[in-house]
Amino acid sequence: MTILYAVLVLGALGAAFGALLAFASRIFHVEVDPKQAAVRACLAGANCGGCGFPGCDGYAAAVAKGEAPCNKCVASGPEAAAKIAEIMGVAAGDTEKMVAFVPCSGCTDTAELRFHYTGPEDCRAAMLFGGKSNKLCTFACIGLGNCVKACKFDAMHIENGVAKVDRSKCVGCGACVDTCPKEIVKLIPEKQKIMVACRNQDKGAQVMKICKVGCIGCMKCQRECPADAIHVESFVAKIDPEKCIQCGHCAEVCPRHIITTLK
Prior knowledge:
two-stranded antiparallel ribbon
């Protein structure tokens, strides 16, 4: 009988609490804008933060309130932007697709090391342990994969000690940019195929001592560019994507082979 009473009491308590929760859900129910739900259904659901809002739900709510444009979800692409614009009854707007790029070629075989780091696989931890980098080039990618962990689209990988981007998978969300403690990773227009894979601002003589492929600021690319699209600034070559005609001549004449054609 004791067991029976216990079961009856627990059953009664369960029913009472269930009724109380049902009552509370009705009293405190918050109506969700149907547009918000419709917009949310169009999103990728990656919660990558590339839109600048706290996840997909936050962005959908902002769009429904008219506080955000329809084309901020880079992970969903232009087709989703068009659907969201149709839901909201506005123009989608044009958005140029951006992809991540790591301007560093200082891999294990080319960049001289300051020390052999054996701590946690974390770029920020390595910087705390050894200063700006585990490599003599203080501008170099540390290569411990903070960006890889942050990327939700499997577009970032560490290859031979340097972060590399798979442009076919990158959606331009910027998570890798935000997480890089050295602020190396940057977003560039997807249409830009010619890039300088180095950002070292030391003088050429110093660069040659610490990296076999670093830009030495020789200005050969600048002199021979037919579009005046590449200039040496702070001892490193930089490309103006607005002027670049993608001819690749700068890559051909670069003595350090640091200018690369992205796929």
